[in-house]
């Protein structure tokens, strides 16, 4: 490069970098002023809205089921990074979720604290996703925000981005009117990996000098741009009307209860129980699996929760039934709490058996694209069989797994309100029925799902002695029939 242009290049470089940094800070300053938050240290606001039950949609292409909130109050202290959210549900009941620094917890109906150590990081991140939290996070020392502009929201918008806690990219879009309109990030999720998470802020209005918007939150994508839409769940939270706002609340900082301070993420526990010759219930957590031995392989029913749970269950299966591969993983339904371990079984070489209506969604879930936040084995080491696509067997109304040693029937549960595409398993020789979310011995009263289970047993004329739930303890058929008949 000739000397002169090299010099010019160096001068331009010098001029460019500080000017950009300067720009980001001045855009953030201007936005803070527009939002009336220059001296804001804490905030409390109340209103009415709704919550989406994330991962619990009736079918994969449908939105998260909505729960109306007759009242919602949130108090945030930005200095101590603490937040308290109180929900009153229209159908009855209330919920409180809290975070302070590295500690997260909930309050039960009696006001007792329930430690939630695994949720602390994302809950702390959620403070930075509020309009005021984003601006504060981007302006914090060491945040090193970057800035780009683009044509959006009817004019030139500015996207400011920083990395929170050394891990999460947080983007905030400032619209042409100078207000923060959208904050987006990605959080780790056992089913979909780096899950898209965004808050949309519109219709700002001033209350006591501070600007407060309408809140509208998405968790995961509605894949409506691609037809057929295989993944419809997205609406996670909305605050439609804000009735009260208080800035700089006295005593907004939370005190962390002692049991919450001491809590750590409990290790995965696995307890197995022999149900019949070669049939094992693998419990020890909130969701069980069932292992069934065949002559030269094993079938497992249900891969719940997450990879950690499934790897522990897989180890236990190999301990109980040594030197036979797990050839099949049967999944009862697509709800996320029953699905988070599926990828671990596919990595292990198992074929997935599901109702045919779930296949397009499961293909999405089992994509071995990179998971950057919390990589699992399938994303890190995608196996050959996966890339060839030979990983599914689908069930319409009935499917039979059998060899000379054993028969397992899989049946579709029709007319169920809980979820579409639900399967149950029936072992005719052992007279065992395995089901998820239709009935549990912990249940207080019969509901539509337990009545559907009874109707299904009658319709299929199954000779059952023991009902094994993915939740709760095995129960006799007679106690189930009595429970449905008389209540308890
Ligand atoms: Zn379910
Ligand atoms: Zn369940």
> Any ligands, ions or cofactors bound here, and which?
zinc ion
Biggest sheet features: 13 strands, antiparallel
Q: Please, what is the average pLDDT?
A: 93
Radius of gyration from CA coordinates: 26 Å
Query: In the CATH classification, which architecture of the largest domain applies?
Result: Clam
Distance between the termini: 87 Å
CATH superfamily of the largest domain: Lipoprotein localisation LolA/LolB/LppX
In percent, how helical is the residue content? 10-25%
State the shape.
Answer: elongated
Strand order of the largest sheet: 6-5-4-3-2-1-13-12-11-10-9-8-7
Structural class: alpha+beta
CATH topology of the largest domain: outer membrane lipoprotein receptor (LolB), chain A
Which stretches are poorly predicted, pLDDT < 50 over at least 5 residues? 10-16
**CATH level 1 name of the largest domain:** Mainly Beta
Number of helices: 11
TL;DR?
It is built from eleven helices and 26 strands. By secondary structure, it is α+β, with helices and mostly antiparallel strands. It has a 13-stranded antiparallel β-sheet. Strands 14-15-16-17-18-19-20 form a seven-stranded mixed β-sheet, with helices on one face. The chain has a six-stranded mixed β-sheet with strand order 21-22-23-24-25-26.
Polypeptide structure, described:
It is built from 11 helices and 26 strands. It is of the alpha+beta class. It folds into 2 domains: 12-262, Lipoprotein localisation LolA/LolB/LppX (outer membrane lipoprotein receptor (LolB), chain A, Clam); 271-486, Metallo-beta-lactamase, Chain A. The strands form 3 sheets. It has a 13-stranded antiparallel β-sheet. Strands 14-15-16-17-18-19-20 form a 7-stranded mixed β-sheet, with helices on one face. The protein has a 6-stranded mixed β-sheet with strand order 21-22-23-24-25-26. Helix 5 (307-320) packs across helix 6. It is elongated. The termini are far apart. Mean pLDDT is 93; it is low at 10-16. The protein binds zinc ion (2 copies). One zinc ion binds at residues 337-338, 436-437, 471.
């Amino acid at each position: 490069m000739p000397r002169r242009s090299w010099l010019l290049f160096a001068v331009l470089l010098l001029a460019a970098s500080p000017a950009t940094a300067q720009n980001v800070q001045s855009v953030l300053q201007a936005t803070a002023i527009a939002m009336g938050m220059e001296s804001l240290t804490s905030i409390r606001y109340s209103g009415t809205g709704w919550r989406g039950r994330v991962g619990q949609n009736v079918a994969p292409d449908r939105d998260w089921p909505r729960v109306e909130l007759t009242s919602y109050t949130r108090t945030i202290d930005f200095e101590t990074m603490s937040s308290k959210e109180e929900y009153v549900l229209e159908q009855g009941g209330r919920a409180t979720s809290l975070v302070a620094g590295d500690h997260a917890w909930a309050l039960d109906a009696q006001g007792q604290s329930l430690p939630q150590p695994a949720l602390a990081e994302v809950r702390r991140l959620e403070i930075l996703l509020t309009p005021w939290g984003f601006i504060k996070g981007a302006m914090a020392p060491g945040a090193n925000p970057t800035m780009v502009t683009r044509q959006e929201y009817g004019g030139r918008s500015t996207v400011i981005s920083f990395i929170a806690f050394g891990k999460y990219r947080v983007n905030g879009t400032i619209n042409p009117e100078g207000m923060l309109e959208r904050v987006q990030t990605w959080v780790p999720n056992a089913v979909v990996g780096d899950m898209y998470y965004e808050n949309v802020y519109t219709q700002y209005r001033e209350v006591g000098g501070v600007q407060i918007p309408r809140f509208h939150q998405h968790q995961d994508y509605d894949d409506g741009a691609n037809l057929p839409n295989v993944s419809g769940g997205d609406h996670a939270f909305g605050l439609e009307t804000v009735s009260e706002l208080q800035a700089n609340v006295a005593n907004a900082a939370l005190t962390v209860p002692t049991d919450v301070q001491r809590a750590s993420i409990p290790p995965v526990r696995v307890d197995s129980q022999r149900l019949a010759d070669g049939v094992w219930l693998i419990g020890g957590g909130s969701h069980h699996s069932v292992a069934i031995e065949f002559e030269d392989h094993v079938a497992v029913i249900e891969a719940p929760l997450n990879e950690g749970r499934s790897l522990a269950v897989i180890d236990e299966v190999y301990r109980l039934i040594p030197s036979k591969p797990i050839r099949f993983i049967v999944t009862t339904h697509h709800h996320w709490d029953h699905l988070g371990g599926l990828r671990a079984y596919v990595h292990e070489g198992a074929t997935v058996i599901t109702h045919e209506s779930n296949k397009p969604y499961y293909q999405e879930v089992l994509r071995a694209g990179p998971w950057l936040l919390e990589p699992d084995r399938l994303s890190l080491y995608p196996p050959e069989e996966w890339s060839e696509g030979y990983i599914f067997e689908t069930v319409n109304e009935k499917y039979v797994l059998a060899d000379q040693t054993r028969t397992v029937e899989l049946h579709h549960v029709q007319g169920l309100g809980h979820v579409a595409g639900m399967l149950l398993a029936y072992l005719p020789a052992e007279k065992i029925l395995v089901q998820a979310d239709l009935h549990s011995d912990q249940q207080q009263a019969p509901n539509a799902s337990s009545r559907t289970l009874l109707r299904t047993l009658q319709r299929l004329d199954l000779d059952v002695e023991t009902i094994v739930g993915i939740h709760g303890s095995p129960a006799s058929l007679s106690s189930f029939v009595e429970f449905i008949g008389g209540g308890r």
